[in-house]
Amino acid sequence: MIQSRLDVVKTIDESAALSFMDSANFRLELLSILNRFDARQTTSNETLAAMERLHRRVDDVVLAGTDNEVG
Fold it and tell me: Are the C-beta atoms of residues 11 and 54 closer than 8 Å to each other?
């Protein structure tokens, strides 16, 4: 789970394609996912799945932004 969190943060940090607002919103969503886990509202498997979904969404936005810059 720690590696998944680091992967999401790394993608957010390294992407010039994300706007400031996109980056902030993704960070808030990650914090929300982690807060639910800390409050024992979700299991580790649910938390990992949520972080993986978030990472896919971040990747989709980054790829769409990169496509727009190239085109």
Answer: no
